[in-house]
UniProtKB/TrEMBL annotation:
It is found in: Periplasm. GO terms for biological process: bacterial-type flagellum assembly. SMART domains: SAF. This is Flagella basal body P-ring formation protein FlgA. Residues 147-209 form the SAF domain. The keyword Signal applies. One of its GO terms (cellular component) is periplasmic space. InterPro entries: Flagellar_FlgA, FlgA_N, SAF, SAF_FlgA.
Amino acid sequence: MNSSALPPFFDRNLTLMKPTISFPVKQRHKIDCLRLRSWLVSLTLVLLTGNCWTQITAQTLVSDSAQAMQQAAMQALEEHWQGSTDRIEIQMSTIDARLQIPVCGMPLAATANQPGNGNGGRVTVRVECQDASPWTRYVSANVKVFRPVAVSARALARGSVIQPHDVTMEELDISQLRGQTMGLSENIVGKALRRSVNHGTPLTLDMLTAPVLVKRGDTVVLIASRGGISIRHTGTALQDGEAGQQIPVRNNSSERVVQAVVREIGVAEVVF
């Protein structure tokens, strides 16, 4: 076969020649521009993704620090009430997301600043980071302290002397109550109310007083004791008197006014 008659894609040794593709100058320039544009778009995406990742990472670190603060504060409060016989409920306040909290390289130290009465309510916990870059933050919480307290079993009028059936025990959150609550109904029976109360009212110490055993104008037995000898007279109370209270009493026989201590209903003992 004449080599000049061979197809253009075969050389003289009958080997397949690699086809070549050539582009005009303008078309090559267009392709280079497309490649450059694609490269720039890819670079922009990488930069944007990196920036977003940095923001997400920073937000995650701040969130983790806030969570660590709350956990440390909660642990401090739980330890504070660990030995309590009351039922305790602790609700931590949400930490402001705008608050910048550095990451601490050491375990956080927390101290509960609880009022001396131990009745719960709004409390503050001091949280400290003690690494090379120390810082201090404060976390608040609401502590509910549930305790059995005496409440009125029915509506009671002012001056009423409380009887056993007038009181019942109920578990209440004492952080919401004012005054010193009464835990045992036995300590209330026999006391008088300073004011009227409705059914279900928690009874506090400031509501109670010793009952009036002698009222002004009452006729009382006036006892005078000395040297093992007791003399009884009839007298008239000149003011109301509770158990153990000293009041003026007029001796009905001599019309003399003496000071006497109320011992029981209708009985007063002369003070020498």
